[in-house]
């Protein structure tokens, strides 16, 4: 009986010793990954120039798979889902002052909820840093070619938070063309009789102002 107890004690000491020594051994696994954008958007900007109330004009841009995504040996993922958002646009001098990303964030977060009023201090501060918002008057129409027509667009006169939806497949639908159609609103009290978008009129005080909007193409899913 005494010999059995000694044997058990010895085993405990050996196990404990092995556990202690394991803390002095390390193994390194080297991990690297090259991260690339999945989409390429062109052009990066466009200017409608001078427009007039109730006039319509159109521009287009392309959304295509990036060179890395479209590589022939890349077969792990084939589909890209994306959304087209819109946000208020900062003025260039404000961008230069605090940086592009902070300026965009400020214009997005500080857009006054109340209707425009030139005597309102909040609107005065906002207009000093950001353009009057053009986004709601920009329609976004997909080409939906080739079939099955898996993109969903927006007509002009919509809320700032509205989005368009696109889908790209590497093999069957590697590029989308989007048409941005500007349907210019009229100024309050100056609209023609055939005006049909009541409630979307611009304040007359904003005549001669330059309006702006940032359109964002954001990938939501790759699979």
What this model shows, in words?
There is one protein chain. By secondary structure, the chain is of the alpha+beta class. The chain has a domain at 37-89 and 131-222: Immunoglobulin-like. 21% of the residues lie in helices and 23% in strands. It contains four helices and seven strands; from the N terminus they run H-E-E-E-H-H-H-E-E-E-E. The protein has helices at 2-22, 92-98, 100-109, 121-129; strands spanning 39-42, 56-65, 79-87, 138-142, 164-169, 175-183, 214-222. The strands form two sheets. The protein has a four-stranded antiparallel sheet with strand order 1-2-6-4, with no helix packed on it. A three-stranded antiparallel sheet has the order 5-3-7. The longest helix has 21 residues, at 2-22. It starts with a helix and ends with a strand. Residues 1-18 have low confidence and may be disordered.
